[in-house]
Write a structure and sequence with these properties.
Layout (H helix, E strand, L loop, with lengths): L12 E6 L1 H9 L13 E3 L6 H14 L3 E7 H4 L3 H6 L6 E5 L12 H10 L2
Parallel strand pairs: 1-2, 1-3, 3-4
Length: 122
């Protein structure tokens, strides 16, 4: 398959939007990357982080950057921008909601699982 027809071509990075523990763990696992233009593939979110900062990071990782293959986002952070997360339908980057240490995963909120259930007719 030629690279011009392959939507995954050039997408080699993971990105993460999450709390400090989640981002730190993933950075220690080796996903960290900073481009020549000083753009990072991670955003640390805490209670003081404004929603527009989270929205901007989500927009950058899903629309603007073409090197992101998978975007991991803590589910409690995704809840803060739920309309944007629910509208997101592209295959690349793949969007995965993950739990955090203090916020358990709730499959009823997961946008991907909602779409799967809708396709199955559940």
């Amino acid at each position: 398959m030629s690279t011009s027809n392959n939507p995954a071509a050039g997408r080699t990075l993971l990105a993460v939007i999450g709390d400090e523990d989640s981002v730190t763990g993933l950075l220690l696992a080796g996903i960290g990357h900073v481009t020549e233009a000083q753009k990072k593939n991670f955003v640390v979110v805490d209670a003081k982080t404004q929603t527009n900062i989270i929205e901007a990071a989500f927009q950058e990782f899903t629309e603007d950057r073409k090197d992101i293959a998978i975007l991991l986002i803590n589910q409690h952070v995704a809840d803060r921008i739920r309309p944007s997360v629910d509208r997101y339908q592209a295959a690349f980057p793949a969007l995965l909601e993950i739990p955090s240490k203090e916020h358990p995963y709730d499959p009823l909120k997961d946008s991907v699982l909602k779409r799967v259930q809708k396709l199955r007719g559940d």
